[in-house]
Amino acid sequence: MTETLIVEGDEAYALAQELADRRGTSLGEAVVASLRASLDERSQPSAPDHARGPFRIPTVEEMTPEQRDDYEALRALVRETSRHIAPGATSDHSSFYDESGLPI
Q1: For the chain, how are helix, strand and coil distributed in percent, rounded to 5?
Q2: Under a CB-based contact definition with an 8 Å cutoff, are residues 60 and 68 in contact?
Q3: Is there a contact between 76 and 69 (Cβ–Cβ < 8 Å)?
Q4: Residues 6 or more apart from 81 whose CB is under 8 A from it?
Q5: What is the pLDDT of residues 46-58, one digit of tens each?
Q6: How many helices (H) and strands (E) does the chain have?
């Protein structure tokens, strides 16, 4: 006999539907996978709050004034340093080495 679980609420349904869409599964499979993951997470040694769950970067509108100041300072630093990148340089740092692999 298959047991039935009924969870009422628009938010619960919307979250389950979004998870199912992202996973490409049915609502039931998404809910079961989420419950399993939650139980697995709880069986692990306790982690600090900031280490649990998916990390989400806040939007600029959600940032505190201090976070916005830090964010804008970092963006200014990136703009300044990007002017000093050699033409043709790549993120693999190959521009720092010669054809023999020695530092330039």
Answers
A1: 55, 0, 40
A2: yes
A3: no
A4: none
A5: 555 555 567 778 8
A6: 3, 0
pLDDT in tens, 39-84: 887 666 655 555 556 777 888 899 999 999 999 999 999 999 988 8
Please calculate the CA angle 50-53-57 and round it to the nearest 5 degrees.
Answer: 65
CA 45/CA 12 separation, integer angstroms? 27
Residue 20 backbone dihedrals phi, psi, to 5 degrees: -60, -45
What are the residues whose beta carbons fall under 8 Å from the beta carbon of 5, sequence distance 6 or more? 31
State which amino acid sits at residue 34. Answer: S
User: Coil, strand, or helix at residue 97?
Assistant: strand
